[in-house]
Design goal:
The chain has three helices and no strands. By secondary structure, it is mainly α. It has one domain. Keywords: Membrane, Transmembrane, Transmembrane helix.
């Protein structure tokens, strides 16, 4: 469980990149994909920073 928590931020960042790739490939006119990927990216960065400080192996 600790290993998953330490990598949760990276997984969120990768999910944001996948969503951005889907958005670029299909060229949607909605901005919801951009908003969701932005929230995942910012949340992933903060989760990576804070969880790696708090979780010890």
């Amino acid at each position: 469980m600790k290993y998953f928590l330490k990598n949760l931020g990276v997984l969120m960042i990768l999910a944001a990149v996948v969503i951005l790739g889907i958005y670029a490939k299909n060229s949607y006119s909605d901005n919801i994909y951009l908003i969701v990927s932005m929230l995942l990216l910012i949340g992933g960065i903060f989760a990576y920073i804070f969880l790696n400080k708090k979780v010890e192996e």
